[in-house]
Amino acid sequence: MTGNRQRLTSMCPGPISRRSLLQAGVLGSAAAGAGLSATQAAALRDASAADTALIFIWLPGGPPHMEMYDMKPEAPADYRGLFRPIATRTPGLDVCELMPRHAECSQRYNIIRSVAHEFADHGGGHKRFLTARHPATPTGFVNDAPAVGSIVAKCRENLSRPVPNYISGTEPGRAGVDVYSFGAAYLGPSYTPFNVPGDPASEDFTVRNLSVDQSVAGRLNDRVTLLKNFDRMKRRVDGSGLMSAMDQFNSQAVSILTSNTAREAFDLSREPDALRDRYGRHCWGQRCLMARRLVEAGCSFVTMVMENPYLSGVEWLKNGTYNWDSHAVNCHLFDDAHVRLPIYDQAVTALVNDLYDRGLDRRVMLVVTGEFGRTPRITTQTGSQTGVMQPGRDHWPQAMSMLVAGGGMQTGQVIGATNSRGEYPQERPLTPNDLWATVYRHLGINPESSFPDHNGRPMPILPYGEAIRELLPVS
Asked: What are 77-103's pLDDT values in tens digits?
């Protein structure tokens, strides 16, 4: 570890956060303010993995594993639910009848059925899953450790790319980093994602802050001139190398802000209509397509949030719910699934197939998951919107399912298993940390390297966890 820490002091320009793009120059000082100077490298990194990327599809609220990837048709009626399983091309993998596209392309993805943790609250579940740590408090969404995406952004700040290195897509009113525990904690605000709010399927969708109109172009030029003058003055008195690194931050921010490359990466109109139709002309489908375009353009970590299916002309269901939080009080589990799962099925499988069809399946890893599963036993309660009794499932971190693909891994696998009622893992028990160890390996990041927290204590990137052997690249 001594050698590791010595190499943590190498020069390294940083990623571009939304704040940097807005202010064209604050990034370096924000990093310094967080206790991490712009001259610090992020972590040991395998140079051969510099071109790899992760697409992370986040399903907040907790998707029901028993209605999707871990159906139990032989379980009692109050466990198994209403939907029937259908066979896929993968032996041992049945999926919900509402997801026929999954059945057709199962040879291109894996399903993990045995990840579990201990945090049943949404806030605790988000923090536990997204930071790979046991949070200090079991509720609330403010991170006390950096989200994995922020760590990746820090570790890859030395990569010069035409797009921000860490990007998220959310609803306009849910763009804050603390909505989903996307916070960077002691790494500082420079390592939170550049957020792209809105519905990419909408005709009036725009990516704000990626262009400079004529009314502010002169002011930007004044800003750049001012920064140059300021930097020349500071260089006379600053011999630490900090200002040199800040020059790189500023240059990268202005370059992205004023170039066409980033705007083109977000421009879905450049895709063939047939492909856009294949993804689905709804928010989830077009977010998935945007994610593929962004990793092709050089983004290292793209998080697309898929929580509200009632967008892009999809009629709101009175007994449906906003996200995947399918308590009976929130929604009629099965009626909501009739709307939600076909949209999900189309968007995710289009992304899987597109990655493989375009030859991105070794360079890009895909992970699709929420923070936990749902209770195996169905509950019944009066719906707050409907006023009638309806079925639902509650929070259940003891078992969950997720889809993984790409990364050069062998696919067409079912990894792990739960017991006959879907209550807990009985084969190949795993934790979120094992998933992130796999992701870090794909991205060439050494999980044993560390960053100082607010008190200067070295905090390892990953406190524990082992890469999932079934997901390692095949030659």
From this structure: 999 999 999 999 999 999 999 999 999
CA distance 302 to 331: 30
Q: Give per-residue burial for 326-342: e unless 16+ CB within 10 Å, then b.
A: bbbbbbbbbbbbebbbb
Query: Please, which residues have CB within 8 angstroms of residue 12's CB and are 6 or more apart in sequence?
Result: 38, 39, 40, 41, 42, 157, 158, 245
Q: What are the residues facing 458 on neighbouring strands? A: 452
Q: Position 264: which residue type?
A: E
Long-range contacts of 81-87 (CB under 8 A, 24+ apart): 81/333, 81/334, 81/378, 82/334, 83/334, 83/337
Determine whether 199 is exposed, middle or buried from the number of CB atoms within 10 Å of its CB (0-12, 13-18, 19+).
Answer: buried
Strand partners for 305: 58
- What distance in Å separates the CA atoms of residue 254 and residue 16, rounded to the nearest whole number? 10
Contacts of 449 (CB under 8 A, 6+ apart): 4, 8, 43, 44, 460, 461
Q: Which residues contact 328 (CB under 8 A, 6 or more apart)?
A: 379, 380, 381, 382, 383, 389, 390, 391, 392
- The pair of three-digit structure tokens given for residue 44, joined into one six-digit string: 């040991």
Phi, psi torsion values for 360, nearest 5 degrees: -95, 5
Nearest-5° Cα angle at 262, 259 to 264? 100
Question: Given a cut of 70, is residue 42 above it in pLDDT?
Answer: no
Chain segment 307-348, per-residue pLDDT in tens: 999 999 999 999 999 999 999 999 999 999 999 999 999 999
Q: Domains in the chain, please, with CATH?
A: 2-471 (3.40.720.10)
Ordered DSSP codes for 254-268? HHHHH-HHHHHHH-G
CA distance 243 to 97: 59
CB 258 within 8 A of CB 33: no
SS (H, E, C) 119-174: CCCHHHHHHHHHHCCCCCCCCCCCCCCCCHHHHHHHHCCCCCCCCCCEEEEECHHH
Q: Is 217 helix (H, G, I), strand (E, B) or coil?
A: helix
CB atoms < 10 A from the CB of 173, how many? 8
Q: Kindly report the pTM of this predicted structure.
A: 0.85
> At residue 94, what are phi and psi to the nearest 5 degrees?
-110, 150
Question: What is the Cα–Cα distance from 374 to 61, expressed in whole angstroms?
Answer: 9
Measured over the CA atoms of residue 160, residue 161, residue 164 and residue 166, the dihedral's sign is negative
